[in-house]
């Protein structure tokens, strides 16, 4: 059995029973306990489950498991691509300045930018900066700091100081959760601080979030809904979230 097949079996067993143990999986799949532990570690890094003593349980939306950028790039690909293209309508005029937050959906916006965009682009994302540099973006600024391995985002005091000194036309910000009461949330306090500073540095805040983020809340709230001007997403927000967005006058843009 290939590793991918084994890990698919693990996720299916977890969905069926709500809990799996290393011993049971090793016996059922006829592999060593160490092989199962490696599989569980990989599945946890991709956000499919949460490790426990001797086994695993499903990852809870808004829980402690933070997905890697590579894992998030492979999720909801069509929706994120459509969101990135739709966000092009919200770029400032030629000569303007925009912040691009680190994330798998803001990454799609960066990939969709025309070569002759004529903008000053500022980002804290190493992957986004690399892509824009390779595309010969003329006026690109990178906010340097400590690079988080999971997300490729630069964080820390130097990034925050740089953001305090600038004012841009628009900030394109990603979020892990979009909640009617807690607003925009994420899992890491350092990334939350940078996202908050980006929102404060922009005349207009545009959130890029696919519908899987609706209603979820994570550890740290980095911006209330009244800080947001536009939400670009792939589906109409439901019930309480739709009401909250309307209350705060947030424009919803769909592809």
TrEMBL record:
Residue intervals passing through the bilayer: none
Gene3D superfamilies according to UniProt: 3.40.50.1360, Winged helix-like DNA-binding domain superfamily/Winged helix DNA-binding domain
Pfam family, one: HTH_DeoR
Molecular function GO labels: DNA binding; DNA-binding transcription factor activity; transferase activity
Domain HTH deoR-type, chain residue ranges per copy: 3-58
Coiled coil residues, start to end: none
Top-level taxon of origin: Bacteria
UniProt KW keywords: DNA-binding, Repressor, Transcription, Transcription regulation, Transferase
PANTHER family attached to this UniProt entry: GLYCEROL-3-PHOSPHATE REGULON REPRESSOR, HTH-TYPE TRANSCRIPTIONAL REGULATOR SRLR-RELATED
Function: Repressor of the lactose catabolism operon. Galactose-6-phosphate is the inducer.
Protein name: Lactose phosphotransferase system repressor
Record organism: Dietzia maris
């Amino acid at each position: 059995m290939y590793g991918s097949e084994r890990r698919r079996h693990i996720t299916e067993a977890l969905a069926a029973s709500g809990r799996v143990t290393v011993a049971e999986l090793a016996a059922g799949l006829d592999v060593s306990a160490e092989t199962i532990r490696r599989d569980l570690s990989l599945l946890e890094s991709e956000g499919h489950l949460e490790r426990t003593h001797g086994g695993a349980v499903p990852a809870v939306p808004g829980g402690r498991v933070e997905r890697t950028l590579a894992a998030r790039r492979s999720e909801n690909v069509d929706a994120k691509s459509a969101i990135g293209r739709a966000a092009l309508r919200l770029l400032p005029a030629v000569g303007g300045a925009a912040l691009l937050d680190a994330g798998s959906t803001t990454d799609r916006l960066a990939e969709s930018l025309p070569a002759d965009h004529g903008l000053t682009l500022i980002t804290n994302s190493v992957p986004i900066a690399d892509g824009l540099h390779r595309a010969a973006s003329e006026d690109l600024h990178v906010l340097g700091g400590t690079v988080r391995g999971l997300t490729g985002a630069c964080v820390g005091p130097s990034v925050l100081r740089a953001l305090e000194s600038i004012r841009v036309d628009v900030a394109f910000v990603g979020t892990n959760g979009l909640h009617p009461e807690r607003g925009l949330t994420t899992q890491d306090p350092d990334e939350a601080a940078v996202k908050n500073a980006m929102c404060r540095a922009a005349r207009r805040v545009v959130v890029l979030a696919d519908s899987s983020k609706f209603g979820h809340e994570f550890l740290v709230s980095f911006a209330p809904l009244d800080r947001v001007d536009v939400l670009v997403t792939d589906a109409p927000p439901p019930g309480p979230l739709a009401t909250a967005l309307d209350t705060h006058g947030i424009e919803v843009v769909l592809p």
